[in-house]
Amino acid sequence: MQRYEILIRLFLSRAKVIYEQIPTFALAKLDIMSNAKEIEKRRTFGIISHPDAGKTTLTEKLLLFGGAIQTAGAVKNNKIKKTATSDFMEIEKQRGISVATSVMAFHYNDKQINILDTPGHKDFAEDTFRTLTAVDSVILVVDVANGVEAQTERLMEVCRMRNTPVIIFVNKLDRDGKESFDLLDELESKLNIKVCPLTWPIGMGDRFKGVYNIYNESLNVFSPNKTGISDDIQSFSDLESVELDEIIGEEAASELREEVEMIHGVYDAFDRDTYLSGEVAPVFFGSAVNNFGVQELLNTFCDISPSPRGRDTDLRTVEPMDKKFSGFVFKIHANLDPKHRDRIAFLRVVSGTFQRNTFYNHVRLEKKLKFPNPTSFMAQDKSVIDEAFPGDVVGLYDSGNFKIGDTLSEGERFMFKGIPSFSPEIFMELENLDPMKSKQLDKGIRQLMDEGVAQLFIQQPGSRKIVGTVGQLQFEVINYRLEHEYGAKCRFAPKNYFKACWVTTENDEQLQAFKRAKANYIATDKDDNLVFLAETPFLLTMAEQDYPDLVFHKTSEFKVGE
Ligand code: G4P
Q: Does residue 60 contact residue 68 with C-beta atoms inside 8 Å?
């Protein structure tokens, strides 16, 4: 009798445990499912172009389609003036506004679109490179008349380094430009990527009649429209139909038929996998300012572009579906008002769910931090959010804890990789003009470097500070901000270096010999890595030849792109 009683009690207690666990399992499963749904919905990307190709105009039209803005012109007003290289105050004014336009999120169909803004000005190219580490894909805008321009090539190199999927939008078809097949050849050869046209222009300039959508076999007839949204798209599966001649004229129709046949002969059919692996770039044609070809671009983009992807850390690859939250800071925006020294750190969520007022691990500082007012950016409005999912960008108010590249996690101690420094192009030695303020100068310059305004190299003897930037404008920015925010005065003396190369080797003897011979050209970066400041391409080649066991890297992230 007693044995039965024990067995029954045992049975009941087991049943209770199982019963209590059911809801937990079910909830966890539901949680995972809803996370998967949120992740699948998101499209986080950047629009890049050589200045003036039409990046701002295209961004604005996408926002218009997404209903995020009602009239054209709203984004444009925030644009940094591209021509005034020395008009620093203007840029400062614009920077204040551009916090709001740094991320533009909106819903379109069933997708949540996150556009990360990249500065157009070439002096801020480094900023753009870093933003590209936080996107999952890119739309590259090319001007039909100018084709591939200098900055297009450089930006594309960065995309190719990390196999970022790229869609190309050939813009300004309402003007005369390069012949379409020639342009496709140029894109392939200069950008080092295969292309696959998904739409095709019918004429250009005055003879521009519209675009034919090869991807879903429809025809969009051109009518200039600078403010609204054109929806004059006709489905057209049979290009042989006489209706085509009636709509666009016999001559244009037969030209289109010929060209589409050629495209099928010359280019492989679109394959999403080769696009996702960064080997093939789908190409669209249109006219952003006329709102033309933009909807095809956006619809196809939603169909084919990747949802948030995983990121490598020094321990393992972190996938968006990983349960625990993690993310990294790719941009820091300073508040330029000296009375409010706070900054906004832009964090890209990589895995799990970011939650407001929850303690997270700042891996580099080994410090627990929580954020009472994390901000999201919907078009031009900022608002406080309670949670964010992989692919989202969250603005975190920061009083100096963050550096670009920092990782936040739910406890794990890994650092995200992939936020490299690139060699600067202009180098100057920083000279302190007020010895009484050297502490302020040190603090200021360190904080500006954390924000990624420029790179600092220290040279011995005397811990001389060499500041390296991509453009002249940054020196004006540093000078102004050191004085106005930190009360320090400085001057820059030009240094005649051509590149900074990070040096690694397993041959210590050769390294020591190199350091002795090149003592005047050796420096260390912010993480104490050894850097060679080469004065000319020739001297760099000589160093490579004379010290064959040393590796001279062009970026600070040695495993990528070398
Ligand atoms: P960006 O951000 O890449 O630097 O280029 P942005 O959009 O500012 O465009 C540069 C110029 O090209 C602008 O003219 C813009 O209106 C024009 N543009 C953009 N798309 C098209 C297009 O499809 N066709 C034609 N013909 N022009 C286009 P702007 O004179 O510099 O400025 P705005 O006075 O027109 O605003």
A: no
- Check whether 493 has a pLDDT greater than 80: yes
Euclidean distance between CA atoms 445 and 441, whole angstroms:
6
Q: Are 466 and 454 in contact (CB under 8 A)?
A: no
103 or 340: which carries more pLDDT confidence?
Answer: 103
Residue nearest to atom 29 of ligand 1 (CA): 52
Residue 72 included in any domain: yes
101, 246: one domain: yes
| 388 C-beta neighbours (distance < 10 Å), count | 23
Residue numbers of the domain that contains 32:
2-37
pLDDT in tens, 323-337: 999 999 998 887 655
Which residue ranges have their beta carbon within 6 Å of ligand 1? 49, 51-57, 76, 120, 171-172, 174-175, 287-290
User: Hey, whose CA ends up nearest to atom 6 of ligand 1?
Assistant: 54
Residue with CA closest to ligand 1 atom 19: 54
> What interhelical angle do 180-191 and 250-266 show, nearest 10?
30
Structure tokens at 347: 């964090």
Element (H, E) at 458: strand 455-459
Residue 275: the pLDDT is: 97
**149/27: higher pLDDT:** 149
Structurally, the chain folds into a number of domains equal to 4
**Mutational test site, ligand 1, from 289, 290, 292, 294, max ligand atoms within 8 Å of CB:** 289
Looking at residue 197, what is its pLDDT? 95
Contacts of 154 (CB under 8 A, 6+ apart): 125
Q: Are residues 134 and 268 in the same domain?
A: yes
Shared domain for 263 and 323, answered yes or no, is: no
Q: Which residues pair with 428 in a beta bridge?
A: 467, 494
CA–CA separation, 148 and 50 (whole Å): 8
Mean pLDDT for 303-317 is 93
The Cα–Cα gap between 420 and 317 comes to 17
